[in-house]
Design brief:
Among the domains are: 70 residues, no CATH class; 50 residues; 51 residues, no CATH class; 160 residues, 2-Layer Sandwich (Transcription Regulator spoIIAA). It has 19 helices and 10 strands.
Amino acid sequence: VITTSISEGTGEFCQRCHGERPIDHFTLGTAFDDAGASSEHLLALHQLAGLLDGHAVEVKEQVATVRSALRALVFARVPDGDPRAGFYEVDLVPEGAPTDHRRWRLKVGNKPLDPDQLLMMGGGAVVGTIPSGLPNPSLPHIDMRVIPRLIVPAVIISLLGFMEAISIAKAMAAKTGQRINPNQELIGQGIANICGSFGQSYPTSGSFSRSAVNLQAGALTGMSSVITSLTVVIVLLFFTPLLYHLPQAVLAAVIMMAVIGLVNISGFVHAWHAQWYDGAISIVTFFSTLAFAPHLDRGIMVGVLLSLGVFLYKSMRPAVMSLSRYGDDTLRSALIHGLEECIYIDLVRFDGPLFFANATYLEDQINERLLAKHDLRHIIIVSNAISDIDASGEEALSLLVDRVRSSGVEISFSGVNESVVQVLERTHLIERIGRNRIFPTIERAVRAVHRDAHVNGRETSCPLSSVLLPSWNSTQQGES
């Protein structure tokens, strides 16, 4: 086409240097005579350049038109897992095919497009279709054949639901100063689930995000939830189509603005100062809820399991310490405060109930003292903190009494509470221990055993007598 145009003299004017006027054949030829070039050839080249420039402009306009058309295409995506998965123009989505409720476009840009490597941009997710209307009330379908398989999942769902609700309630109460009644929360949640079953509802629980939004809005009573419920009913009946294109980012922003006010860094610091493991558990739980979002119950479950683990560990290894005189004439841990101990009497305090999980731990602690203190003559178990004792604990205590006495060391108990005494009486262990070896207070126990424990002893000054026996010391001095 270009060659024909040149030969027929129909080429367009050169757009590079003089697009406003025709090319002067004579002038152009004269200008290049000295170069030995034919003016016809030079004119043809000049016309060819003009045609190429015009063609390039035309192609650019066509490319711009094509890119604009590609940018205008809107697709919907059928998710993987469906046999019709893929991208379709919004008007060509197969009937009944589920979509991800997003609008996808081709990533066009300004670079050359590779048909084999087209990129799709989905933009932000939208709320999508919300079914309008309310569910029809109906009786729950009960199939006795599936109930055995549902018992365990139902119990787990119930525990997780209540755990999530009470955790949220505690967080709200910390902000408002209100008192929490866990029984009332459990009853309310149970009634809500029972009533919801007649409307085919999911298991209900407290929602952290919605509760935070409610609190941030200034709600103080349950009436706010009633008004919210009525508003939701009205929206479900009449306004759900208006919410189709609402970006989920808007909902996220509302929730974030409400929840950010509930983040209390000082709470983590306070928990760490109280007990380092409580602070560590709270931090791990916080990041777990972020990692498992939107399944907050999984993050909370991580915190619950860690708390249970710490509780079981501390229950299996309660504090067992030897007591001695402190500077203010009180009894404190000799190991922690570096106190001098009586070489003949060991006051051993056991902090916690005595049951199957920690019974052997008490035995191990007493055996360590028997091996470490060669001059030991009497052990007094300070039992004020032993709030309960089970069958395994009672059996371990019986074996402990026999083992200590077989090693030539006497054993007594002080501050035994009434419930533990009743167990000892029912099992007749109190007779094996000896009623004269059970004392109501530490002072009476030390006063009763101190003289016999120090017979022919080499201890010149007993730290226990100076703290617990002032009247006995005065009597001793008077007698001397």
